[in-house]
Design a protein that fits this description.
Blueprint: E1 2-7, H1 12-24, E2 28-31, H2 43-55, E3 60-65, H3 69-75, E4 83-85, H4 89-97, E5 103-107, H5 113-125, H6 132-138
Parallel strand pairs: 1-2, 1-3, 3-5, 4-5
Helix pairs in contact: 2-3, 4-5
């Protein structure tokens, strides 16, 4: 799978570790930054990731910031994005199964790296359930 990944300074450490983890699982990774732990603005990295997911140049995305909220808000401004914020594996599963999230957002300051890996693994292994959830997704306008 070709996965896009981005972070701000708060998620920089986890992003680097997740890139190594995902490469080790055979995935192709596109890193949209940041490339430093220096303070930066999450939107500068969220928008390019969202564009890549919308255009299909990556199959899915992972975004990491301090709370996850800044990334999620920014990503969800894009019409073709369904970014889901997850802080445990149950939420990671549900954002894919029920909401067909094409970008997973992680709150680095509130979860351990071990939990981040568990959430990513669960999210990637989960399929969209369809059915009544598909009807709900269809009600989200895409221009």
């Amino acid at each position: 799978m070709k996965i896009g990944i981005c972070s701000d300074h708060a998620g920089f450490e986890y992003k680097g570790k997740l890139i190594s983890y995902l490469l080790g699982k055979g995935h192709e990774i596109v890193n949209f930054g940041t490339d430093s732990p220096e303070s930066c603005d999450y939107a500068d990295f969220a928008h390019p990731l969202a564009d890549a997911v919308e255009k299909g140049t990556v199959e899915a995305g992972i975004a990491i910031c301090g709370t996850g909220n800044g990334m999620a808000i920014t990503l969800n401004k894009h019409q073709g994005i369904r970014a889901g914020l997850a802080w445990n594996t149950a939420i990671g599963e549900l954002v894919k199964e029920h909401n067909k999230a094409n970008v997973l957002v992680l709150p680095a300051r509130f979860i351990s790296y071990r939990m981040a890996v568990s959430i990513v693994r669960t999210w990637m292994q989960t399929a969209f359930a369809g059915g009544r959830h598909a009807r709900r997704i269809e009600k989200i306008p895409v221009k």
